[in-house]
Amino acid sequence: MVGIIDVRDAVQMAVDAELDLVEVSPEADPPVCRILDFGKYRYEQSKKEKSNRAKSKALEMKEVRLGRSMKIDPHDIAIRMDQARKFLMEGHKVQIVQNFRGREMLHKERGNVRMKEVIEHLSDVSKVEMPPRMAGRRMSLILSPDKAKIDRIKAAAAASTSEQ
User: Fold this and answer.
1) Can you give the residue range of the structural domain that contains 26?
2) Of the candidates 134, 106, 107, 128, the residue with the CA atom closest to the CA atom of residue 116
């Protein structure tokens, strides 16, 4: 921290130290410069960018399959809904998939009813990003986490644990 100095003096100081004079913050008034190894500075900046990109990829799509066919026990569906809820609470998008086998294709309305039940069951933590659609023998639906609802649930859980 030298303070405000003339550009020629700063360049001379960098030459004397056998380093580079790098403008770190051009928007500031006056602009902020540092005397440092520019190659090392660029390497550190790229490392920061990579870590930021890795954090942004944390929002993945998770797939929850409702069995191999429509013949699935309600308890099994409840287990899968709990798993989907967990994924949504962690901030992931969830794709719910229902497969149809054989003659089940004649009763697609049952799949629609099941998907509506799923939407209602998870409506307290999610919003529908893509409504139920048929693609061949698969019906799928995409739910995304509703941040406001999740924050309210987490706040209520934190308040209840602090009371105990």
Assistant:
1) 7-56
2) 128
